[in-house]
Amino acid sequence: MRSCVVAITVVLFCSLMSPAFAQQLAPSPAIGMGKFSGGVLKLHRLAGQMNRCWAMAPEHWYVSATTPEGTVMELATQDGAAHGGYSITGVSSVLRRHPSNQWSSPEAFIHMVLSMGGREHIQYGQAQQDQFGYIIQPFQRIPMAGIVVYRAFAAPADPGGFVVVTREASVRSDFWPTYGPVAIATAMSIRCVASASPPTRDSGAGGRGRSGEDAHESTYNVQLGMEYAHDPRTGENYWVSPSTDVRNGPQGPGYYKSVGNSLIKLDPGTSP
User: Fold this and answer.
1) Using one digit for the tens of pLDDT, what is the confidence trace for 90-118?
2) DSSP letters of the chain?
3) Domain that holds residue 55
4) Do 152 and 242 have their domain in common?
5) Residues 231 and 243 occupy one common structural domain
6) Among 22, 30, 137, 165, which has the minimal tally of Cβ within 10 Å of its Cβ?
């Protein structure tokens, strides 16, 4: 039986699964990505330790965890109702032979991490593959629902090992239809510079130039019904909805933000 499993912001892998492990997975209710409701949502830039990770997020989000090596960045809302994360994890062929068997296969390790040693129950929806080769895996772990977007790569100079890149977005289940798109966009905005980076990663440390990751993020934002805009005077960035936020203002059709009694037109994309 072929199936996909996921470890939130740690590691995940899609491969042949043993029947015993597969039986522990029950399909969850369908979790769609949803559509951004709009509203010209102001963003701020968040940075991790040593500035090796950075992201765009609404103002009530903060960095909940990060590593100085640039391998992990986790973001959350102040009330804990939403989370977005990124990780890149390498598992060596030697570690896979550890006597605990927790690293013996991707499935064994993932189950240990996700279920917290079997104490938590995880349900999965139907996985899909996007045009960049990443797997989109919906999941539910009460009281949260979410998706993980991941891809595995061969470990450099270690044929028996692997490297997995993951992005995870989760929201309290009752908030998912309205706030899920914001959590997904937040997770997709994370950039990190780590020594084990896959071939398409950014090499800069703060900019948002066109890259494989930017193109990947852009395709998700299109599906979510959102895009970036910025105030050219202040450099402030926003998420806007092409379907609900375009208006006829003093400078013609476009995106505008309200400042007192004035309307300020926004330019497309993020600030330079």
Assistant:
1) 889 998 788 887 776 665 665 666 666 77
2) -EEEEE-TTS-EEEEE--HHHHTT-EEPPP--------S-EEEEEEE-GGG-EEEEEETTEEEEEE-TTSSEEEEEETTSSEEEEEEEEEE-TTGGG-TTSTTSSHHHHHHHHHTTTTTS--EE---EE-TTS-EEEEEEETTEEEEEEEEEEEPTT-TT-EEEEEEEEEEEGGGHHHHHHHHHHHHHH-EE--TT--TT---SSS---S-HHHHHHHHHHHHHT-EEEE-TTT--EEEE-TTTSEEEETTEEEEEEEETTEEEEPEES---
3) 2-39+47-225
4) no
5) yes
6) 30
If pLDDT is split at 50, 70 and 90, which confidence band does 163 have? confident
Say if residue 244 is in the same domain as residue 148.
Answer: no
Are the C-beta atoms of residues 153 and 65 closer than 8 Å to each other? no
Q: Which of 20-24, 110-114, 134-138 has the lowest mean pLDDT?
A: 20-24
Task: Report the domain count for the chain.
Answer: 2
Rounded to 10 degrees, the C-alpha dihedral 122/2/15/182 comes to -50
C-alpha dist (Å) from residue 243 to 175, 252, 266: 21, 16, 16
